[in-house]
Amino acid sequence: MSSTSAARQYARDNADRFLEELEALLRIPSISTDPAHAGDIAAAADWLTESLRAIGAENVAVMPTAGYPVVYGEWNGAGPDKRTVLVYGHYDVVPAAIEDGWDTPPFTPVVKDGKVFARGATDDKGQLFIHVKALESYLASGGAPVNLKFLLEGEEEVASPNLRPFIEEHRDLLAADACVISDSSMPAIERPAITHSLRGMTYIEIHVDAPHDDLHSGFYGGAVHNPALALVEILSKLHNPDHSIAVPGFYDDVVPLTNAERAEIAKTDMSEAELLAATGVPAPWGEADFTLRERVSARPTLEINGLLSGWTGPGSKTIIPARAMAKVSCRLVGNQDPHDIYEKLRDYILAIAPPTVRVSVELLNTGEPALIDFTLPEMQAAARAYEIGWGASPVFTRGGGSIPIVADIAHLLQIPVVMMGYGLDTDGLHGTNEHFSLEMFHRGIDTAIVYLEELARLPAPSR
Amino acid sequence: MSSTSAARQYARDNADRFLEELEALLRIPSISTDPAHAGDIAAAADWLTESLRAIGAENVAVMPTAGYPVVYGEWNGAGPDKRTVLVYGHYDVVPAAIEDGWDTPPFTPVVKDGKVFARGATDDKGQLFIHVKALESYLASGGAPVNLKFLLEGEEEVASPNLRPFIEEHRDLLAADACVISDSSMPAIERPAITHSLRGMTYIEIHVDAPHDDLHSGFYGGAVHNPALALVEILSKLHNPDHSIAVPGFYDDVVPLTNAERAEIAKTDMSEAELLAATGVPAPWGEADFTLRERVSARPTLEINGLLSGWTGPGSKTIIPARAMAKVSCRLVGNQDPHDIYEKLRDYILAIAPPTVRVSVELLNTGEPALIDFTLPEMQAAARAYEIGWGASPVFTRGGGSIPIVADIAHLLQIPVVMMGYGLDTDGLHGTNEHFSLEMFHRGIDTAIVYLEELARLPAPSR
Predict the structure, then answer these.
(1) Cβ-contact B433, B103 below 8 angstroms
(2) Which chain A residue's Cα is nearest to B366?
(3) Phi, then psi, of A373 in degrees rounded to 5
(4) What DSSP character marks residue A101?
């Protein structure tokens, strides 16, 4: 039995224990968007270092950054003539509370209907853990065919503000021949996908205030501009009636889709029925000139992510609120520049702001869009790994989400980034009842094992 | 020394104690808009009954309603040939928390710069207590010149849903010749005002939802209608560009202002500088064809009182929110009907709701506008009481706020309602740092004492 066959058998034999270990990681509420959870971030980092050491990884360390730490670990047993694969993942998660509408507490993993329910189950703890367990399976079976390095960060959900400097500082440590990232998804279990494009991000907060305090709506109603109304008026001017974005210059740098690209995207088109079933919306929405799949992957967007003003508790309170706030974010596509989009957005909002209120715009974070050539050998090896390990041929797709670090890794380390997502589009990530299919978890480990073998079979890299 | 002179002297001698007693009442967080404070409502009702019994009121009782109770008490010592005055007030308050921006805890009264700071200080605990202390001052000085009845409710801030049935059920108990209410304010201490008109209210909540859950904005952004955006689009269509209200038929029943009425309102006009200083807004806003005072008292309005959708905590969360909510209320003027306005508002909102989301409209509460003839003898007696007790002639003004019960009392008990407000427009009611001037409190007690004497001097009522 080859080392790969043995590793695949080991993974099958230890499937239940792998799940139990994942559940332990999911119990840690490592929420990076809320400073109150800094201790949980540290606990998750410690847990991962223990986990890496336990399987036999070397030079395992919690490495500091200006923010939350990076968990690093490596295994160089394949030898210097073999390829080295850098595995990127993130152990931080977005907020979740049972009051948001979860059926069970989000940090108490529950297995039901063949899925494990918990915040982070699919994004990204479950997916990053696949690679840890793939390496364990090899090391318990005589060793892996390539060298591995793990780069696990704790700030992906706040747009990785410190990872780029970390990579710049540790180029030698992180040197590799390819990077594999599992932090994306496929439309159905029999339709695996390799993501070769990701949307970027510009995330802002808009604040409107005018009165120095909440005002009694009876005393001043009619003579002052209600900040919530002023905010509503501004937000209502960010889209055109055809649902395109009204910010001047917003589309200037969008690379038009070619007919060939549209044909590729059409292979994974989403039907209206699929959209409605997956989301619960009564009807689709968006730019009529583009298919649903194009709208969610190849077109930039502008969303209101949050709104807050005045009294929002039970019953009524007759105030003119002192202030109103909106969180607004744009998904960007090549070749939009997140900072350029921020400036255009800010300038437009301030230009349409009425003189009857005070308006400010704050940049929360940015992420660059990414596009990887899928004819590269490391991309094609990934396709073969799916055929063997997953049991289905993958399609190369554009992802609608943002992993800002993909562009950074590709550029700084000069290596292809292979996005082998093992989630389902319906996993509910960032929403309530996030979950991860156990079958996807175990097939993912199998595919990750096979991928290392496929990489080892490629001609030696030119270094 | 007449009984009235003695009572006025007694009030001056006991001013400090009166304030201490008021502070005890202000310590009870009797918030009627939040069911969690039901026990505090009961505590405030008990406190008031003790207070009424202590000064010598008779038949004092906490009388049940379908909601929070009415505190009742009376004094009939003037005899059946004398007028009976019904005092209305409310012991409930709107929510307040130090996190809202208060300088001191809202239910720990603090005296600073000649003002007592606390939620309810001016609205309405401080003002209703004036009448309790006026009666005490008479009873400690040989008796009052008229009979008194107290009707103190605990649901004014939730639009008095049970007071109208209570009055209907207890018409005989509440029979009186006039009703006096101190729950309004004047622009400055030397400019007392008798409010002869109040705005009504229609308060609704709008809910927009579409996805069954929060969605990842990367996966679905561009293909579904963001509920927060849909809400914004609806809210942006409730006003016309000239700041009038766009709801069809909204102004149908508004009685046009005559030139004579506009001249009366002009006596208390608010300058732009006054508005800016009082509110902190950078510029006035509203219907250009009306003066500032007209806008805030004689014109109907539509305000957004609260907005909530998606992620509103620190940092960013890249979701398409599952739902969005707005609290919206209209201030109404004669002869608008709150239920008719509700139907027009609801029908319009549902008519402009896009088919890409689900929209619902819920009526939270209503209040009728009120208009009292200020040539009535009980109104003119109040003007004389201000001249003698307060030391300044009052103007008859229109109030911009809503006291729904005023219309109910006037109609059901067939008596004039005299609104002698002892607050200042700048007291911050319903906002942060609500306060009540101690000078207003003590001058109010003096004026309330004199008013009973002035009522006693009127020709016998025709009963």
Answers:
(1) yes
(2) A316
(3) -70, 120
(4) T
pLDDT for residue A78: 95
| B55 CA: distance to closest CA in chain A (Å) | 34
To probe the interface with A, which of B209, B245, B304 has the most A CB atoms within 10 Å?
Answer: B304
Determine whether the interchain pair A311/B319 forms a contact, defined as Cβ–Cβ distance below 8 Å.
Answer: no
Cα dihedral A99, A103, A109, A115 sign: negative
Task: For residues B186 and B425, give the distance between their C-alpha atoms in angstroms, rounded to a whole number.
Answer: 6
Partners of A88 in beta bridges:
A151, A181
The DSSP output letter for A33 is T
What integer pLDDT is reported at residue A405 of this predicted model?
A: 85
Which are the contacts of A377, defined by CB distance < 8 A and separation ≥ 6? Answer: A458, A459
Disruptive mutation site among A156, A206, A276, A327 for chain B (greatest number of B CBs within 10 Å): A327
Evaluate whether B185 touches B385 at the Cβ level (below 8 Å). no
Q: How close does chain B come to A458, measured CA to CA in Å?
A: 33
Instruction: Taking the CA atoms of A110, A111, A112 and A115 in sequence, report the sign of the dihedral they define.
Output: positive
Contact (CB<8Å) B223/A296: yes
Residue matched to tokens 């907020």: A95
Q: How far, in Å, CA of A25 to CA of A121, rounded? A: 9
A229/B304 touch (CB, cutoff 8 Å), yes or no: yes
List the domains of chain B with CATH numbers: 3-198+369-457 (3.40.630.10), 200-254+300-367 (3.30.70.360)
Please name the member of A100, A217, A400 whose beta carbon is closest to the beta carbon of B331: A217
pLDDT for residue A462: 63
Q: Is the pTM of this model over 0.90?
A: no
Are the C-beta atoms of residues B367 and B158 closer than 8 Å to each other? no
Q: How far apart are CA B234 and CA B243, in angstroms?
A: 15
pLDDT less than 50: residues of chain A: none
Q: Nearest by CB to A310, which of B270, B292, B307?
A: B307
Do the Cβ atoms of B214 and A430 come within 8 Å? yes
Quick one: which H or E segment has residue B341?
Answer: helix B338-352
Q: Which residues of chain A make contact with B213, given a CB cutoff of 8 A?
A: 101, 280, 428, 431-433
For residue B261, what pLDDT is reported? 82
- CA-nearest of B70, B273, B33 to B173 is B70
Distance CA A155, CA B230 (A): 31
Whether A101 sits inside 8 A of B432 (CB atoms) is no
Q: Inspect the interface and report whether the beta carbons of A216 and B310 lie closer than 8 Å.
A: no
Nearest-by-Cβ selection for A331 from B211, B218, B331:
B218
Q: Could you count the other beta carbons within 10 Å of the beta carbon of residue B355?
A: 10
> Token match 């501009």: residue?
A225
Q: Measure CB to CB from residue A232 to each of B235, B308, B355 and give the nearest one.
A: B235
The answer to whether A376 and A168 are in contact (CB under 8 A) is: no
Distance in Å, alpha carbon of B68 to nearest chain A alpha carbon: 15
Average pLDDT per block of 10 residues along chain B, 463 residues long: 89 98 98 95 98 98 97 96 96 95 97 98 98 98 97 93 95 96 90 89 96 92 97 98 98 90 86 95 97 95 98 94 98 93 98 98 92 86 95 88 84 92 93 96 97 93 63
DSSP B247-303: STTTTTTPPPPPHHHHHHHHTT---HHHHHHHH--SS--S-TTS-HHHHHHTS-EEE
Distance between CA atoms of residues A40 and A28, nearest Å: 6
Separation between Cα atoms, residue A184 and residue A194, nearest integer Å: 9
Contacts of B311 (CB under 8 A, 6+ apart): A95, A305, A306, A327, B317, B319, B321
A235 contacts B232? CB cut-off 8 A: yes
